[in-house]
């Protein structure tokens, strides 16, 4: 088992599956299916009103460059709707209009509306992360995320955060690690 990330602020990290109540259902299911992965993922309880990245980092003294955002996007190719998740460091933005649009091979790409993203992922808005995403979705992870020693991401709920080694992102189902940040 990988030791918990170095402490920042008042966060109390536990192995993720030892605090299952702090995980969204799809996140818990993904970790339960992969014990090796689960051994490297930690979870900490947070105030749900501080789930948004900037508020979380400020309140818990967590560096922005060690936090990642997961954005869900969709586009259309003919009658087919194509969906993907993009993971970038909180200090960066995903190049949706050029890089991700071309990867999905769609003419126009947009953020998935909040309600639709919540329904599609079965995760809470503000808690959507890379673990437990629907099968078949491409997950584009920026190179900088994969090189981070630790990165904090959504746990499926607003009341907690996951911490995992950035390199572990390369092992998640459906992941493609590329340069997608602006």
Automatic annotation (TrEMBL):
<dbReference type="InterPro" id="IPR007214">
    <property type="entry name" value="YbaK/aa-tRNA-synth-assoc-dom"/>
</dbReference>
<dbReference type="GO" id="GO:0002161">
    <property type="term" value="F:aminoacyl-tRNA deacylase activity"/>
</dbReference>
<dbReference type="InterPro" id="IPR036754">
    <property type="entry name" value="YbaK/aa-tRNA-synt-asso_dom_sf"/>
</dbReference>
<protein>
    <recommendedName>
        <fullName>YbaK/aminoacyl-tRNA synthetase-associated domain-containing protein</fullName>
    </recommendedName>
</protein>
<feature type="domain" description="YbaK/aminoacyl-tRNA synthetase-associated">
    <location>
        <begin position="48"/>
        <end position="166"/>
    </location>
</feature>
<dbReference type="Pfam" id="PF04073">
    <property type="entry name" value="tRNA_edit"/>
</dbReference>
